[in-house]
Design a protein that fits this description.
491 residues; alpha/beta; Alpha-Beta Plaits; TIM Barrel; 3 domains; disordered N terminus
Amino acid sequence: MQESGGNGKAAASDTGGTGATPKRRRAQLENEIKIRDHELAWTSERLIAELHERSAAQASATAAERYDPATALPNRRLFEEQLTQAAAEHHAACEPAAMLLIGVRDMASIRAENGFRAADVAARVIGDRLRLAVRGCDLVARIGDNEFAVLLTHLRSSADAPPVAQKLIKLVDAPLRIEGRQFVMDAAAGIAVCPSDGQDPASLMRRAQSALQLAQETADRCYQFVDSDLVHLDGQRLQLQADLRRALDAREFLVHFQPRVQIATRRVVGAEALVRWLHPRLGLIPAGQFVDLAEQIGLIVPIGQYVLEQACAAASRWPCEVLVSVNLSARELRASDLTTIVRRALHDGALAPERLQIEITESSLGRQPQEVAASIEKVAELRRSGVSVALDQFGTGSSSLTLLRDCRVDALNIEGAFVRSLEVDGGTMAILQAITTLGRYFGIRVVAEGIETEQQCSLAEQAGCAQGQGYLFGRPMPANELGTFLDARAN
């Protein structure tokens, strides 16, 4: 009986224990599931947050690469992309468009005297004025510290561009107030028309830059190139040809000189001769507007000879440490009597050979191997006569590195657009440092052209450039003004 009762209690106890165990296990499982759910939810939220952070960082990096931080306008890189697309569309539709390059001289002085914050405020105000003054289909960008670009789209004709440029110049020139002080800008605009002045960003930028330079050098602060259609119409083309021939006899060509300095000391060590044509009807025309035509009709050699003679005569009156640089075209380089022409100009100008530098471009050397070989021999012949030779616009051709080995020169001139991009593109600095390293290996000095700001100058010096040229150091000027400029620097 007792044994039987004991067994019954044990059975009841086992039954009760067996009934409680699944509940506890279920509760434990539910608790573990809740913990895992919380962990998964936290992980999911963290993953989503990280994705948002990464996306925001990528968007910020993209914006930094394509937009100017001070104005929020497209930068040079994005503007060139937009310009490429717009040029193709307008060419296909047979509609003209115009690129306006607006230079603001006083931006650098605001930055120097009042700091970067004040300069950023000025840039933002100018950018807003330009953006609000054009149509919604037009494009506005800031492509440099002192330069804004405007693309006027879907024009009726190229004649619509100059009035808009004049209006924008007035808007930029209007007084602006920064931190209680009033500033007045000094703007000028260069105009390039698509497709007549070019169908790719490089051509349009180059033509607009030349037009801006001419506008800043003359009383007219808005300059549009002579319509390219003028050169393509037979009757007018013949007239221009006749004008070019007459211009030689009438001595209508002017030679201006732009200083080149030793960056470390700012001492003037040279000046580049730049030709202008003072046309009696069309006004002052830059070299880019008539050199190609002069080369086609066989006048480039006598024009180049005239520039060479004027340059040598002018340089003979400068301090002996200042060289003069003269550009040669492809046809001049290939002339059979080139060395004789150079020696005669040196003799007549009473200038020592070592004070003359001849500048050539990679493209002027020719394309075929035999042409390049003959040009390289001409370069060697010039150097044997005591004249130095520089490769101009270095890096814009296709055989730069080969030329460093095969064509011995004394200097490499780095194109201005490349130098100006140092401020916005770290890759440009790496490339320029590599070029200057190669230059040192071959005993070649590297010259940074187109320097407009102190920052560009500092970066060019950091990259290893020994000399610099650009508006920061001096604008192109007549020979007598350069003489005064040199005297002032000497005192």
